[in-house]
Amino acid sequence: MRRQGAAGLSLITMARQTLGEQGALASSAAYVFLHYALLVAYMAKAGEIVAGALGLGSVPGAALFSAAFALLCYGSSQKLLDRVNSVLVGLVVASFLGLLGVAAGGVEASSLTSRGDWAAVPATLPVVALAFVYHNIIPVVCTALEGDVAKIRTAVLAGVLVERKQRRLCRLRGALCSSWL
Are the C-beta atoms of residues 16 and 24 closer than 8 Å to each other? Predict the structure, then answer.
């Protein structure tokens, strides 16, 4: 950001500067594919949750969830969306801390060194796909922290530590995490 003199910097802009125009096109295609896949995954899972809560089918549940968030995004100011986003992030942090509290008592140290269950790998693929989205937050963090390198470094390192603790906990408590995710 500081080198460019810009208030913000996108992933595609960084790809163009480092990989050239063809690299930027490939990055754009991968970015669009990944985010459409994530959008579908979020809509499907949220639709499933809404459907279970309201006694609807999965398709009407996904449609209701999508319509509600579309209306929120379309009809709200940036300030309200920032507040809603902050509340949702707070809920994610609270649910993570709750998960840590619930699962901490069941951690078995021997699980850290025992052989893994390869049959459980397919259930982890959605988490792996979400891990590829992590890098997309960096330009947002850089913009929010106004290019302050020390603050950005602290935010990224703290985020990595939280993610690693969550991954380790999920590995130890696979059944709980697979139903939670």
Answer: yes
CA–CA separation, 101 and 95 (whole Å): 10
Least confident of 12-21, 58-67, 155-164, 169-178: 169-178
Task: Give the pTM.
Answer: 0.54
What are the tokens at 165?
């603790």
Per DSSP, the residues of 92-134 read HHHHHHHHHHHHHTT--GGGGTSPP-GGGHHHHHHHHHHHTTG
The answer to whether 28 and 16 are in contact (CB under 8 A) is no
